[in-house]
Amino acid sequence: MPADAPRREKVERLLRSLATPADGLVDTWLNRPVSRLFTRALAPLGVSPNSITIASALIGLLGAALLADGRHDLVVAGAILFQLAAALDCTDGEVARVTYRSSPLGAKLDLALDNVVHVAIFIAIAFAARARLGDAGALLAGTSTVVGALLCWAVVWRLTFEAHLAPAKQGLVGRLANRDFSLLVILFSLLDRLDVLLVLTAVGTHVFWLTLLAVTRRRPAPT
User: Which residues contact 41 (CB under 8 A, 6 or more apart)?
Assistant: First the structure.
C-alpha cells in the first residue's frame, strides 16, 4: 500500500462529507462531481483557495463576454464557461477545508466575486437580448435585473456575515442562494431565447431578495 494511502482515504472521506443540504440539483449532480476532480488535482499542489476563487471569477467573466456577443455558438460556449465557473466555485471551499485554510476573508472574497460574475452575466444577457427586445426593452429589463442582483447580493451578504442568524435560517439562506441558475443560462442559450431569461430575471431577482428578507425576518420576542 502506498505510504500516502491513509492520507488519500482521509481526503476522500472529507470530500464526500462536503456536500451540504444547501446544495441544489445542479450542485449535487454536476458541480460537486466536477469540483471534486479539481480538488483532488489542486489540493496536493498547494494552490491557495483564494487563487481558485479568482480563477473561477475570470472564467465566469470570459463566459459573460461570449454571451454578450449574441451569436448562438458563442452564447452556448459562454453558458458552458459560466457553468464551469460555478463548478470551480465549489472547489475553492473544498480545497480550503481539505487543506485547513478556510478563512473569513476567503468567504467574503468568494461572495463578492460571485456577485461580480453574476452582474456581468446579466449585463451580457441584456446585450444578447437586444435583437429580440430592442435596445429600450433590453435596457429596461437589464437594468431591473442588475439592480435586483445587487440587492440580492446586499441581502445575502448581510444575512451571511452580519445578521447572526440561527443555524436553521443560515441553512435556509444557503438553500435559496444555490447555483441552479447556471442551468437556466445553458437551457435558454441552447434555445436561443436569452430574451425570455432576461425578462424572467428582471422580475425574479426582486422576488428572490424580498423572499430572503421575508423568510429570515426575526420575529419580535414575546412580551
Answer: none
Take residue 121 and report the three cell numbers written for it.
Answer: 452575466
Topology of domain 5-216, per CATH? Four Helix Bundle (Hemerythrin (Met), subunit A) (1.20.120)
> How far, in Å, CA of 117 to CA of 56, rounded?
9
Write the CB contacts of 160 (distance below 8 Å, at least 6 apart in sequence).
107, 111, 170, 173
Domain boundaries, the chain: 5-216
Q: What predicted TM-score, i.e. pTM, was given to this entire model?
A: 0.85
Cell of 24: 441544489
Which residues, in sequence order, are CB contacts of 75 under 8 Å at separation 6+?
Answer: 66, 67, 69, 128, 189, 192, 194
pLDDT per residue over 71-115, tens digit each? 999 999 999 999 999 989 889 988 988 888 888 898 899 999 999
Single-letter code of the amino acid located at 99: T
